[in-house]
Amino acid sequence: RERDCGNWGRMEGVVKQLKEIDAGLEVLEHEKVLTVEAAQAALAGVEGLAFAKNLLFKDKNGKLIHIVALNSTEIDMKVLSLRLGLGKKHPRMAPAEALQTVYQVEAGCLTPLALCRPEAKDVVLLLDERLKEEQKVLFHPLRNDRSVVISTGSLEAYLSKIGRQGTYVDFQKKDFKLGKDNPPDLKPLLDAAQAYELGGDGAGDSKKGGKKAKGGKKGDQGSKGGALPAGDDVHALLREIQESLAPGQQMEAKVSKDLESRLNAFKNIAYTRGYKAARAEIRAHLN
Predict the structure, then answer these.
(1) Which pLDDT belongs to residue 25?
(2) How far apart are CA 84 and CA 79, in angstroms?
């Protein structure tokens, strides 16, 4: 049976449940951090730690996909989309509203430990296969000025304790090809999940309410006149930049990865300063 986070959903409740699994649980205090890079800097003096990134996506039907992976793991969204059965319609970054209404945490606090929220019961959780190699992985216990140090075994036990389960995925797999004998292996996970009615850019909104987000038709990714897509949709913006290049040209993988990292940093700024300020900053750096 699914449980709430305990102690009114505060950090103390999550830590208490983790200590029931691991009595020697280590809780690290540090300054507030919004990115993995900031966490690495804040805990530079602590050895033997593995830093995990948490990515939250929304598919075309409004279903949420939470990816937990080692910071060094590269995730090929094209391959992941095929494995999820989404074809060329890649999942897009979930709107900030998902953090507030589903996970009920602030920006920079996305964590699998918040899946104890009843509202998060339909989130699809994908875990990096490489996490199994680590004994000390850092996760925020609902707030980003603390980190708990746990093993993947302890994480699995915690998820079981709250009635959840993650699916391990080899994100290093790059040669996935759909075929009669090779169907989308992750599609059943999405099929079993319910969609969320979230705002955002309008694309991929749930059909439950039959409502379209303001600012355009359902599925729009920006006007034909070249306007930027929603400031928190990094992948849509990268696609638009790629489409603006001359025919036959492709953005180098290293450049694309660096730009994605920078845009994600600006997205974090959006969460803390407001979307308008972040869009202006992105435009200034792209011009």
Answers:
(1) 94
(2) 9
DSSP-derived pairing of the beta strands 124-128 and 64-70: parallel
Residue 18: Cβ within 10 Å count:
22
Return d(Cα 165, Cα 126) in angstroms, integer.
9
Q: How does DSSP classify residue 179?
A: B
The predicted model gives 131-138 an average pLDDT of 94
- Determine how many CB atoms are found less than 10 A away from the CB of residue 275: 16
Give the span between the Cα atoms of 120 and 102, in whole angstroms.
5
Q: Are 237 and 263 within 8 A, CB to CB?
A: yes
Higher pLDDT, 60 or 280: 60
From the list 25, 129, 88, 125, the residue with the least C-alpha distance to 221 is 88
DSSP strand pairing (64-70 vs 26-29): unpaired
Can you read off the two tokens belonging to residue 6? 């305990």
Using a 10 angstrom Cβ sphere, with 0-12 exposed, 13-18 middle and 19 or more buried, the burial of residue 271 is middle
User: Any residues with CB less than 8 A from the CB of 191 and at least 6 apart, and which?
Assistant: 85
- Name every residue whose Cβ is closer than 8 Å to that of residue 158 and which is 6 or more positions away in sequence: 17, 18, 21, 113, 150
Residue 212 clears pLDDT 90, i.e. is over it: no
Q: For residue 152, what pLDDT is reported?
A: 93
